[in-house]
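SEQUENCE-TO-STRUCTURE ENTRY
===========================

Subject: a protein chain together with a token-level encoding of how that chain folds.

Sequence line: the amino acid chain in single-letter code, read from start to end.

Question of interest: how does this chain fold, as expressed in backbone structure tokens?
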Amino acid sequence: YVSWWLAMLEKHIQATCGDTAAAVRAMTCDCFASMSKDVYERLPPRYQTLAITLLLPLPADQDANVRAAACRAVGVFVLFPSLHEDPLFVTDMAAAVLEQMGDKAILVRARASWAQGNLCDAVVMESEKPDFDIREWVSMSLWAKMLSAATSAALDNDKLRSNAVRAMGSLLRITPQSYFEFGRNIQLVKAAMASVTKNIESGSLKTRWNACHATSNMLKNAAFPIGDGYPWTEAVYGALVQSMRQCRNYKVRINACLALATPSGRDKYGRQFEMVVAAVLGAWEACHKDEESEFQELRYREQLKDQVRKVVFL
């Protein structure tokens, strides 16, 4: 199968990337997106470089369908281990995707948002290595652009929102204190938290549980600014508590409960601590009431019980 890809890259894809027909260029991007991680990692270095060199310019293609297909392909590639280990590729990919986050075509924006979510998840994977330094992958100026783009996407069409909040959760999870404290970056965080809170409270169920999960993700960062003195603290915890108590969908309630249990210290809750404790205890009692649930929700109800139990007995 690797030999097939070698022949494709050498004999066909180099030509079709520059084909005059937009449909051919779009199908070339779809071809790239179908490449598996195992295949890419087994390509000789020269062919890996060739694939990246051919793909990275395509998100800026003049045709919207090509741009959308290219963003999807780039979003696939960034999850390949050898690529998200490469700071230069991550930086180049971020630049290519960010340029399309404000595209006029919603399909392009949606695919770019998905790719950015994958990019941020990939950098989180790298952050778990002992020698990780975010400045090698995401400079402060690039960080600001990524956070601003994700914040705007989280207030855009619902097709973008779940991936936008996913990107914010991952990006803020690995943000160092020095980034939060520099200049007006805290204003970017304020805008981001307003958009996350809105998506916890409303929107499609997929968007809401992604927003709850994103909040849990960012709260794993000991340097994340939340607690007394930060104006978004009350709104974020209030939205999580409301979702845990009132949302009929158990996946939303599970992820809201997970987020409420994530902060590492009481100071991260600020004056909302007592409210959160009362809400979790109320959820514990509600889990043991013999109320009927729809059949497809029963397994999630059991998961909610398990999650609340973990919080109660922390």
